[in-house]
Amino acid sequence: MDLKRYMTLLLLTMLMGSCEKFELDTEADTFFHVKIVGTELPVLVRGNTSSKKFIIYINGGPGATSLDVARADLFHWSDGLEENFAMVYYDQRGCGNAQGNFDESTLTVAQYVRDLDAIVTVLQDKYDNPSIYLMGASFGGYIGAKYLMDDNLESKIDGWISVDGAYNFDYDLSWQYRRTFMVNIALEELGKGNRLEHWTSALEWADANPVITTREQKNQLREFIGWPGQIIIPEEESSISIKQYLGIGFASSYNPFPAFLSTNLEIVNHKLNADAEGDNLISEVSNITLPSLLIWGRYDDLIVPEEGRAVFDNFGTPVGDKFFELLPNSSHEPYISDPTNFKNLIIDFVQSY
Amino acid sequence: MEVKNKKRLTMLDAIQVYHEGNQVYVKISDKGVSTTESWVPVKFQWKVCGTAKFFVMLMVMFTSIGCFSQNMMPKSISVSYLGEMVTHPGLKLTFDYPLTEWEKSKSGRRGGERRIEKSIELSPTVGFYYHRRYQSGVMAIPELKFKRQNPKGNYFEIGAGLGYLRTIVPNTYEVDATGEVSKTHAGHNYWAKNLFVTFGRELKSHRGWPMGIFVKPQFLYATPNFPKGVGYFMLELGINVKLK
């Protein structure tokens, strides 16, 4: 191929690639950026846009990425969720392939909420006001909850899906919930006749330590619960093939360098955790009144389901429109350990509202 | 201005840079005729604002390219496929100007003598790439490289560059204070620094034009970007044509 032909082909490819269509389609695949306060956030809309039900996935971390997860279909959401609904993936400010040299002072939860709202607004505009659902996992749950606690913003959303969400950054209180978690687990395991000596010791220790504050106490509690795969907490490891790795690196819209070989994760994680530290939304979620599905892994030792249950009880949503689902074979990431039940819960919820 | 006892920094005819202590002088020859009056003292001030730095850099870069084109034919020109992350296509042009060249003789394994050609070259480059859905980039990067070529025509280069990269972010929307959504242009200006190696081979003369092929993997780091910069891996595959 001579140079002239090569150039023509290249220009044609560039022109074709620069046109993204916001269509209602059963197999949509649309990519755009949202420019806001010094950065461009990449957004991928994939799946069944003709359903006019859009689920925005707010990843956790903080500082983790979404677009690579979508590109590799790491959680197999193309099967099930994307068939029924349009899934919206985006890389948050400072993460993954978000671009620009923005001011680090904008790494705040409030700005992340404004970023999310800009994406919601663009989706409303481009897809003629579809039903929009937020799905926040872990720290993404905190961003989503903060969004929904603003009445004006909540009114734009049709449903809230919280996956092992973070609502409380009062760490002393979290350790109390973890103690309750251990006691409940011990009672369950004793009821099943498992490791009687171990769990009896755990209960005795819990009786003697009503408040968990010291490093020794925290380590001892961990000894009783054990690490994932050791005693009761299931291991949640998603597998990614070499082909998927190569696909992300060489044949996708992704530039792996800023996503994986940068210090941005560390900085974002530090800044957002510092911003959230001390905040406790457990009682404040009474301001949230929209239909809500809270999914929790029974063995989530990071944000324990006992804490999740307290959050759920305080939700302002009418009782018939809020649901707390405990997945018995999961820990912090039920979309990895129990994908079928996880997806079924979401499909049922979104189709109902 | 009379220039005496100054130490020469470059081997170029068109642009000569000398220094005397901390003062640097530049002489740009006018079609080979130069006078002492054309010496210009240059003051380097690095702590200028980003925009000013950018324009100064562009001026220096394009002035030097312009001088080269008027007064000096490059020794060779390269045209290459520029693949950002290998597969995202682009094109790059490179103009090679040797600053200094020398030869070294080595005794071969069978007793013969091998002449190794070595040079240091300055190579202004221009190029672009297209990464679908991520960004397009246009860049102008002067590169400085060391080249070593054996008698068989195989050569190796190692070098670095510093220049300018402009990115264009596609399909960008923004929301104004009233909630109105509009399509907007987005992109960023960067200092682009690259490090590269080249593995090449000279081919037999084609229609009187000595040609070569090469592969040139490189890492490019663009600043400023959150948190400090953004990295790219690029691969060039190209042909090189000797002009003189």
UniProtKB/TrEMBL annotation, chain A:
Gene Ontology CC annotations of this record: membrane
GO function term, MF aspect, one: peptidase activity
Keywords, sorted A to Z: Hydrolase
Occurrences of domain Serine aminopeptidase S33 (ranges): 83-222
Highest taxon listed in the record's lineage: Bacteria
GO biological process: proteolysis
Alphabetized Gene3D superfamilies for the sequence: alpha/beta hydrolase
Name listed for the protein in its UniProt record: Alpha/beta hydrolase
